[in-house]
Write a structure and sequence with these properties.
alpha+beta, 8 helices, single chain, 9-stranded mixed beta sheet, globular
Length: 452
Amino acid sequence: MSFADFSRAGEYNEFRQHELRKRRLVMVDGNLMVNDNSHAMGESARAYQNGYWGFASATQPTGADKLGNIALANAQALQVFGGSSRPLPQQAHQGEHGIACKPNWSSEQLIEWQQSVNDLARSRYDKLASMTVLALDEYHDKFVQNSLGARTYNNISRAMIYLILTVKDKDDKPVELMQVIGGKGSFGDLDLSMASVEAQLDELYEHLMAKREAVHAQGGLQSVVLAPNLAGMLAHEAMGHPCEADLVLGGAVTGDMRGERIASDLITMMDFAHSYEGQELAVPVYADDEGTPAQDVTLIKDGLLTDFMHNRETAATFDNPATGNARAYAPDDEPLIRMRNTAILPGTSKLDDMIADVEDGYYLMKTGNGQADTTTEFMFSINLGYEIKNGKLGRAIKDTTLSGSAIKMLQSVDAVSGDMHWDSSGYCGKKQPMVVSMGGPAIRAKAQLGGE
C-alpha cells in the first residue's frame, strides 16, 4: 500500500487504505488448540454533502476516485430527507508514523516457547490443574488522505501473551487467574525470557494458593483500594465512554455537566493521543482516520468535567476543535469516536499508606472484564482481591463484582497513589472492536461490592 491519486468529491471526502494482520495461537495443557492467521486489506472512502455522510469500501484495489464517487452518491441519496451542512474543522495532518518493531517470532518459535512455559509450570506447581498459554499479535497499517490536504500513515502494532493458571479449591471447583505480558511492537519487543516468565508465574501461583482458601466479600458499600489496572478500567469504561461526543449527543449524562464537579479534586483524567511524559504509548495515534492531527484531551481536571473527545462532525456541532479520535478497526469499518490511551493521572500518596489507613475494606487487584453505560453506571468483575483489616491485607476473596455510579465513586476518592500502570491487553467494544490502552494509579474510594 501507499498514498494514492486523490480527487475531491462533495464538500469533504477522505480515502483510507488499510491492512490488518492478526495471529492467535492457543496452547492448553501442552496441546496446540488454535493456530489462526488472518490478513485483511481494503480501501474505503467517505464523502460529506449537505449534512450527510456516504461511505463505500472494497476488498480489491478500486481507487480513490471511484470509491469517493460511490460514497458521494450514497450521501446524496440521503438528501431526500433534507438537511444542511455545518462547516467541518479544517485541520489536516501530514506525516508518517510507524513503530520500529524488533524482528517478530515465527509461529514455530512461539509454539516452542509456549511448550517450554507449559513444561516450566508443570514442573514447579504441584497443585496446577490446567494451564493455557495464548499468544496474539496484531498489526494495522493505514494510509489516509482527504480533501483538506491530509496525507498520513499510521501503524499500530501490539503483541500479547496471556498466561492462565487453574487449580482446584477445597470443594474441587476450578479457581483461575491470568497474567498478561504484552505491549507495543512484536513478540521480539517483549521480555519473554524464562526468568521473567518464571517470576510472574510464581507470583500468580501464590495468589492462586490464597484464592483457593478465599472467603466471600461483605456485600454493600465498602471502602476499596483499586490497584492501578482497575483504575485504568474505571477511566476507560465508566468515564471515558460518556465523554465521547457522539455518545454525549446520544444522551449521555455528561452532556450538560461540563464545568461541573463530577469527581474528587484529586482526579484528573486524560485521553492521550500518543505520548505520556515524553514516552510513546502503546496505541500511538498521531493523526486519526479522518486525517485530523491528534491531540491530548483533558476529560476531567481537578474533579471538574472539562472536554469531550471529537471527530470532525461532533467538533462542528459543539464548536470545538476536532481532537483526532475518529478511528476504524477493520478496512471496511467507518471511523467512530474512540479512545486512544485513557488514564487517571497519578497523585502523591503511597499505596502501602493507602491500605494502612483502611480499618475495614478491600484491596482489589484484577478484573476480568467490565462494562458501563452512558449514565456512568458500571459493573466490573473482580477476580483477585484481599480483605483489609486494621490496615493490613487479610484473606483473599472469592470472585465478585464492583458496581455503582462512576461519578459517585470518583467523588468519594480520598487518595491517589503516585505510581502509574498502563495496560493495552484488551479491546474496546463500540459497534467495532478497537485496540486501546488505559492507565492509572491506585485510588481509594467507596463503591458497591457484591458479596454476602
